[in-house]
Amino acid sequence: MIRLLILFCLLGTTAHAHNKSISFSDWLWNGRDIEVLFTVPARDITLLPQTAQSESLEAALSAHLRTSFELLQINTSCTLTQPFTARPARVGYIRMEGVYRCLSENAALEVDNNVFFDVIRSHVHLARIQIGPRRTMQGQEVLFTTNERTFSLNPMSPQELSPRQNFFEALARYFRLGVEHIATGVDHLAFVLCLVLLATSVRQLLILVSGFTLGHSLTLVLSALGLVAPDPNVVEAVIGGSIAALAAEGILTRAGLMPRAGLIAAGLIYAIAGLSIIFTSPLPLAGWAGFMLFAVSYGFAIRSDADRRAVAPVITTAFGLFHGFGFAGLLHDVGLPDGQILSGLLGFNLGVEFGQLIFIFVILLPLRMLLHDLRSPKVSWSDILASILTGYGVFLFVQRGLL
Q1: Is residue 219 located within the same domain as residue 151?
Q2: Are residues 115 and 205 in the same domain?
Q3: 369 and 261: one domain?
């Protein structure tokens, strides 16, 4: 029962776990009225329970926002005088506007924000709050996460409207963001679990984790700074495929089936590429061709355990490059702190590494030792877990490649 509970905790999250979930709002405090513009990807709204009882996604989002925002002033809730209604938005997004009326234009305001956090634990919300008669590009930028849902603003203290942070404030905030991102990124955690299953010793595990860290740190920085901009759809598909590849590698190598599995995988990818034409896949045909070439090359590169040990650090580092692009996707949407780009990048990367190491040495290694000591069926617990991870990775690859 304990083993099943641990397994469900690791893999029981929805397939949307890594697809970054982020929403934006623009707040204008003008006198006693507070106008709120809220924008979110349409796909996230489909996860709301209100969707089943609503005629449209706009109606579902309006109902969700009505109960998820609470504005308090002098211990009294502000009144929603204009319900959230749809406004023009770019393709794939839905924008709503609502108006609250509060007691005073000078009293401190507390915002309690619960939008999407109870539905999507990895959700991030970026708000810009400004005081004045019209909207500008200035104002206080506030980052809301699952663990940081409240914000207070005193209009009589102009210094609170400064968006600047010092080095250590930015470092701490983005460190927390990095920890939360890795902790809620089920696909990244699944890949790390694959590394633990793949390694035959703690020394080899450290080598694999170091390669993964080197790869994703490099592309995280390059992508966050705008120096490299890969196709995000290809990146997400590769992340799913990397889980399936590493999880299946051990079982297939022992059976001497890696070359044959590579050819079969290439044939299946060819068939999926054909379906992608029907489903109007977001992936270009060149991407599918690249996946086929990799499957064949990967399969024939590993014919024995010796090949597997030699290739493991290289392939782990290569996959780490793509995972780094996945990490950077959140920073693209949230943005780096004004004037503190270095501390933001450093804090986020350190947060990811800290969460990753905690997951490995506090959860995965004790779990591996526990499974090793327990009496196992004809098929080892490690192979059972690897098979589950293979199925999960294949599912992510197909889903992200076709939809």
Answers
A1: no
A2: no
A3: yes
Residues 60 and 198 in one domain: no
pLDDT tens digits, 301-329: 999 999 999 999 999 999 999 999 988 87
> Does pLDDT of 20 surpass 70?
no
312 and 186 within one domain = yes
Among 13-17, 145-149, 245-249, where is mean pLDDT lowest? 13-17
The 3-state secondary structure of the chain reads CHHHHHHHHHHCCCCCCCCCCEEEEEEEEECCEEEEEEEEEHHHHCCCHHHHHCCCHHHHHHHHHHHHEEEEECCEECEEEEEEEEECCCCCEEEEEEEEECCCCCCCEEEEECCCCCCCCCCEEEEEEEECCCCCCCCEEEEEECCECEEEECCCCHHHHCCCCCHHHHHHHHHHHHHHHHHHCHHHHHHHHHHHHHCCCHHHHHHHHHHHHHHHHHHHHHHHCCCCCCCHHHHHHHHHHHHHHHHHHHHHHHCCCHHHHHHHHHHHHHHHHHHHHHCCCCCCHHHHHHHHHHHHHHHHHCCCHHHHHHHHHHHHHHHHHHHHHHHHHHHHHHCCCCCCHHHHHHHHHHHHHHHHHHHHHHHHHHHHHHHHHCCCCCCCHHHHHHHHHHHHHHHHHHHHHHC
